[in-house]
Amino acid sequence: MQQTSLHLDTPILDLFGLPVSLGVLAAFGVVLLVFAAAAALLAMRRRRTAADLAELLAVQSQAAEARLAEIVRTQAEMQGRMASMAEIFGTRQAELNKAIGERLDGMSHRLGNSMSEQTKATHENLRRLQERLAVIDTAQNNIQSLAKDVVGLQAILSNKQTRGAFGQSRMETIVADGLPIGAYEFQATLSDGSRPDCLVRMPNGQPSLVVDAKFPLEAYNAIRDAGSPEAAKLAAQTFRRDLEVHIADIARKYLIKGETQDIAFMFVPSESIFAEIHENFESVVQKAHKARVVIVSPSLLMLSIQVIQSVLKDQRMREQAHLIQGEVIRLMEDLGRLDERVQKLQTHFTQTQKDVEQIATSTAKVMKRGARIEEMEFETLSPQQTGGDDRGGSRQVESRTGMLKLRVVDED
């Protein structure tokens, strides 16, 4: 053992001035073997790693190729879908454009119709507006004319004489429009020498009715124009006194027994004045009733004239009653003659009906005999049968083709 150790420690080589023994060489060889083994192992590991890497790269390459193919396929599908979507979008765009165009055309048509109708309506409204403006212009002209008439009427009413003439004219117009000529008289003279404004002649010999158209309007105008309550009260007293005096004058001058009616009319030419009298001057109205004087407005006078007109019509109808009766008697005579002639005509119609019935009977008989002739039977006879007896009421007739047997069938 020791000898072996000595041999290993013995230097056998001098390397760069350093002794190298066998043990060192052996150790170095072992180290070299270890390094070689390590290098071989590392090389093997490198080769294995390279193979694994190559295999991994191959797998990754295949996966990449598969993914690329999938991407290409997906891209192709996407391109197809995009093409389909582009086609769909194109079709939808065309349909949308068509629908939008149709709607625009419809809207344009409706808008055109609406504008034309609106234009027509506008023209119609303008025409109506022009007509109404024309009517307004006419009304304005009428109002201006009426204003001129009112001014003229105010000028008339401001004068006593013209005011009396206005009341007289209005009363005469109402009477003349409602009564026939001869049933009234203006400014007639009575037995006492007085001259009323109108005298209405009553029928059946009754006394006439007096209508007075004079009215004290100055005091009423003073009431209307009064600026203070004291002046209005004083004017009302004056107006009441003038009315009472005028009513007394009418009753004194125009109520004549046997010649005029026991009442007389005092005509007030204004409905507003008439209402004012009945509302604020009740005592005057009562005194007028006691004096048998009736205060009438234009409407009441018109109503009274219509009543008188109805009485006159009734009186004229009674006067013509005997003429109507005579006409009715002659009408009944004419009706009697007409009834007699109708009876004669009915007799002629009855005889004609009988003749028509006899003609119908004869026609029926002729039709029956014609039917019997149609039912006659003709039979052909041989020459051997010609010598036989004629039985059953048959008659033989010679013919070129043979003997014909004629049999008449009688009906009951």
Explain how this protein is built.
The chain has 412 residues and is an alpha+beta fold. It has 3 domains: 57-157; 159-319, 3-Layer(aba) Sandwich (Trna Endonuclease, Chain: A, domain 1); 376-407, no CATH class. Helices cover 71% and strands 12% of the residues. It is built from 9 helices and 10 strands. The protein has helices at 2-9, 22-158, 160-178, 218-224, 229-254, 271-280, 282-290, 298-319, 321-374, and strands at residues 11-15, 18-21, 184-186, 198-200, 208-212, 260-267, 293-296, 377-381, 395-399, 402-407. The strands form 3 sheets. A 5-stranded mixed sheet has the order 3-4-5-6-7, sandwiched between helices. Strands 8-10-9 form a 3-stranded antiparallel sheet, with no helix packed on it. The longest helix has 137 residues, at 22-158. The model is unreliable at 386-406 and 408-412 (pLDDT under 50).
The counted number of beta strands is 10
Separation, N- and C-terminal Cα atoms: 187 Å
* Regions with little confidence, pLDDT below 50 for 5+ residues: 386-406, 408-412
CATH class of the largest domain equals Alpha Beta
Strand content: 5-15%
Largest sheet: 5 strands, mixed
| Backbone shape | elongated
Question: What is the overall number of helices?
Answer: 9
Spatial ordering of strands, largest sheet: 3-4-5-6-7
CATH topology of the largest domain: Trna Endonuclease, Chain: A, domain 1
**Cα-atom radius of gyration:** 73 Å
| Whole-number tally of structural domains | 3
Helix content: over 70%
Secondary-structure content class: alpha+beta
Order of helices and strands: HEEHHEEEHHEHHEHHEEE
Arithmetic mean pLDDT: 76
Oligomer: single chain
Q: What's the architecture of the largest domain, going by CATH?
A: 3-Layer(aba) Sandwich
